[in-house]
Fold this protein.
Amino acid sequence: MIDSKIAKNVISLELKAMQDNLIIYQNLLTNLSQERSKLKLAKGGWTILEVICHLNDYEAIFLNRLKAVVNKNLAELPFRNEKEEKLARSKYLTKDLVKVLKEFGSSRTKSINYISSINPNDLGKLGIHLQYGNLSLLELILRFSAHDVNHLKQITNILKEHNEI
């Protein structure tokens, strides 16, 4: 059982981080041209556009995982296999950055609203992830900002290498 006072404080901090991270993404990328969104590191990897498309896709996956666990303890969590991941990624470079950023903002707002409505007593419920095993609802919530930090670092490294920041 997770202490409800601590859980409320942790959730409050996570929601603030999720909101702040969205603002950071928007501040970094709102004025970036479609052409510049296809920049990537010289050593390779994803473009900025691919990162934002990935974030947008995973926002829905993360939210569906939360809903699955709230609805059923020990729920199998939605998981994208390698084939599905490659198919989704193959379409990323054809997408419009402005549209994807807007969709990501809407998706993030839905996630924030849903997390805000979760009963703290449910935070100890578990979901079964095919790769990571059992994860509590609280752990799943905390993965939003951890995922953000990884990709914010990736985007800022690309922008810095190309003298955009």
User: Anything to note?
Assistant: The radius of gyration is 17 Å. Strands lie at 75-76, 126-129, 133-136. The chain has a mean pLDDT of 95.
